[in-house]
């Protein structure tokens, strides 16, 4: 028995931080969007003693940056369900890592979400999407969204989700500079100058998405975490400028960064921007993709894939 899964990356079209909570987390309002760029995961049930084996492939950097043991979110997702349902078989997980690590693209959360869905399917556990989400949030705040996917408003710590209609179509250029940005660093620094932050209008952006207006959706893009990262890592601002010079409708950092995404309404301009970034030194990883839509999922299910 085997399942092949695609664990897609996400970007934030809008990201606002409302307040720091007494438990140390932050209350957020985010417009989330899945993109068609993914890690590939293969799950195989084995007849061995109950045990989980994980191997990570996808180049030297993936092997260095991503643990292949119980620290890996994909491993922990499988463990969570297999222990609860007392599965008496073993599981082999092969994780082909393509999404850059610690990049603001929720790669680890998406791997965990795919494994939850895959284990549920492989061992016939019969859990609904909502039941998977309730379990997923124990491993990470972004995991319920990575199970839902598509366009959504995420509130609370990111786990309170409202489905939105498909975002207006665009070409999405992703570029990660060769910098490692810790999420903890970003939130700690945000807290120190919280009073001066300019908050994006998330409600207006949600309305623009409902109206199918790409230009208004893009004009309303805003990420308060840029207040910390853009001054600390000038390369982020330079990638944004380059994308804008190449004709992006708008460009912004995703999540806590450092990946920058640009939205384009024209494939040729997007391709030219992609080529320029690939041949320059600002970005280490560059990808050109599109938005993933939840209704694509129905087509996927027909092909027996998650
Ligand atoms: P977010 O956007 O949710 O903040 P991110 O894209 O910034 O996520 P990830 O790539 O998910 O960050 O990984 C952050 C850390 O989690 C890494 O330092 C890595 O060691 C660890 N990790 C655990 N499991 C995974 C996984 N399956 N893939 C990538 N990183 C993982």
Describe the structure.
By secondary structure, this protein is of the alpha+beta class. 37% of the residues lie in helices and 28% in strands. It is built from 12 helices and 11 strands. The longest helix has 16 residues, at 107-122. The mean pLDDT is 94. Adenosine-5'-triphosphate binds next to helix 2 and helix 3.
Keyword list:
306 residues; binds adenosine-5'-triphosphate; 12 helices; seven-stranded mixed beta sheet; four-stranded antiparallel beta sheet; alpha+beta; 11 strands
Secondary-structure blueprint of this entry?
Elements lengths: L1 E19 L5 E21 L5 E6 L2 H6 L7 H12 L5 E7 L10 H16 L6 H8 L6 H6 L2 E6 L3 E4 L7 E6 L6 H10 L9 H9 L3 H6 L2 E2 L2 H7 L1 H12 L4 E4 L6 E5 L2 H13 L5 E6 L5 H7 L4
Parallel strand pairs: 1-8, 3-4
Antiparallel strand pairs: 1-2, 2-4, 2-5, 5-6, 7-10, 7-11, 9-10
């Amino acid at each position: 028995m085997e399942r092949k899964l695609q664990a897609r990356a996400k970007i934030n079209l809008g990201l606002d931080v409302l307040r720091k909570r007494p438990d140390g987390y932050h209350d957020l309002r985010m417009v989330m969007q899945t993109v068609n760029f993914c890690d590939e995961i293969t799950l195989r049930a084995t007849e061995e003693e109950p045990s989980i084996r994980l191997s990570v492939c996808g180049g030297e950097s993936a092997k260095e940056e991503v643990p292949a043991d119980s620290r890996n979110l994909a491993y922990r997702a499988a463990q969570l369900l297999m222990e609860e349902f007392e599965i008496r078989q073993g599981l082999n997980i092969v994780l082909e890592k393509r999404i850059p690590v610690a990049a603001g693209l929720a790669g680890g959360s998406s791997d965990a979400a795919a494994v939850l869905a895959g284990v549920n399917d492989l061992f016939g556990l019969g859990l609904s999407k909502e039941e998977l989400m309730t379990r997923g949030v124990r491993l990470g705040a972004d995991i319920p969204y990575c199970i839902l996917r598509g366009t959504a408003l995420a509130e609370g710590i990111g786990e309170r989700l409202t489905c939105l209609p498909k975002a207006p179509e665009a070409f999405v250029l992703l570029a990660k500079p060769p910098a490692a940005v810790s999420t903890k660093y970003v939130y700690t620094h945000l807290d120190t100058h919280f009073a001066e932050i300019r908050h994006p209008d998330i409600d207006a952006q949600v309305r623009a998405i409902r109206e199918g207006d790409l230009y208004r959706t893009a004009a309303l893009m805003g990420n308060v975490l840029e207040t910390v990262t853009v001054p600390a890592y000038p390369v982020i601002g330079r990638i944004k400028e380059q994308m804008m010079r190449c004709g992006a409708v708008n460009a912004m950092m995703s999540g806590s960064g450092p990946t920058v995404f640009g939205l384009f309404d024209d494939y040729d301009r997007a391709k030219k921007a992609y080529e320029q970034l690939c041949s320059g030194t600002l970005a280490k990883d560059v990808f050109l993709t599109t938005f993933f839509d939840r209704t694509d999922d129905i087509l996927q299910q027909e092909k027996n894939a998650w």
